[in-house]
Amino acid sequence: MCGRALSDDVSKIKLDLKIEFDEIADYKPSFNAAPTAKLPVVVAKNGARALTRMRWGLVPSWATDLKISYSTFNARAEGIESRAAFRAAWRAGRRCLVVADGYYEWRDADKQPFAVALGNRGPMLFAGLWDVWRAPDGTALKSFAIVTTAANALLQPLHGRMPAVLPQDSWAAWLGETAASDGALKALLKPYPGERLTFWPVDRRVGNVRNDDPDLFAPRAEAF
């Protein structure tokens, strides 16, 4: 799964999410974001929401190097609280919202890529976990993983998994702005209703991360 980062209209994103602190000074939209890229996420900071940028592919604080991040860009909701790479972030409440216009998924049967988005084409907010790792020279790296869950009936023909998309009424709990038990938080990590989503085939060029242009997200005839 590859995400598409924020659209050009960052001001609308900040308004919709009630962002009080914007820590992204040099934002450029991406239409083919992939693991290791630095992408926009929302965190709770000093009682307010901040829009910041983190590296996609969680590097836990105990890691000896960055290699682990190539297998931790997604975090399965099932057992997330006990898996070694994610349990410290889970216990510490390091949760974030990953902001995207949609994401790409490749159909298992023939590897045809599709774009998935909300039916109203509004911003999608994925549940995420983040952590801080310090390099040998003391440099701090903040990184995140997107939480995944079982695909809903609409998307199962494409793939068996999907990101845990969070509706607006769950953002505060996920960010820790309102109290929620571990059980309540785990309950948020469920398939998003299929009737609120849409998907369409896209150009196979999206399979190469060096391609990054608006046409990648546009509908295309399926190529078999």
Structure, explained:
- The protein is 11% helix and 32% strand.
- A five-stranded mixed β-barrel has the order 3-4-10-9-6.
- The longest helix has 7 residues, at 10-16.
- The chain is mainly β and 224 residues long.
- It is globular.
- The chain has four helices and twelve strands.
- It has a single domain (2-217), classed as Alpha-Beta Complex (hypothetical protein yedk fold), CATH 3.90.1680.
- Report the major sheet: 5 strands, mixed, barrel
Strand tally is: 12
Cα radius of gyration in angstroms:
17 Å
Please report the number of helical segments. 4
What is the total domain count? 1
Average pLDDT figure: 92
Tell me the overall shape: globular
Distance between the termini: 20 Å
CATH topology: hypothetical protein yedk fold
Helix content: 10-25%
Which CATH-level-2 architecture? Alpha-Beta Complex
Query: Which stretches are low in confidence, meaning pLDDT under 50 for 5 or more residues running?
Result: none
CATH superfamily: SOS response associated peptidase-like
Write the layout of secondary structure elements.
Elements: E1 2-4, H1 10-16, E2 21-22, E3 38-45, E4 48-56, E5 74-76, H2 87-92, E6 95-100, E7 102-106, E8 113-118, E9 124-134, E10 140-150, E11 161-163, H3 171-175, H4 182-188, E12 197-201
Parallel strand pairs: 2-4, 4-10, 5-10
Antiparallel strand pairs: 1-7, 3-4, 3-6, 6-9, 7-8, 8-12, 9-10, 10-11
Condensed summary:
The chain is mainly beta and 224 residues long. 11% of the residues lie in helices and 32% in strands. It has helices spanning 10-16, 87-92, 171-175, 182-188, and strands spanning 2-4, 21-22, 38-45, 48-56, 74-76, 95-100, 102-106, 113-118, 124-134, 140-150, 161-163, 197-201.
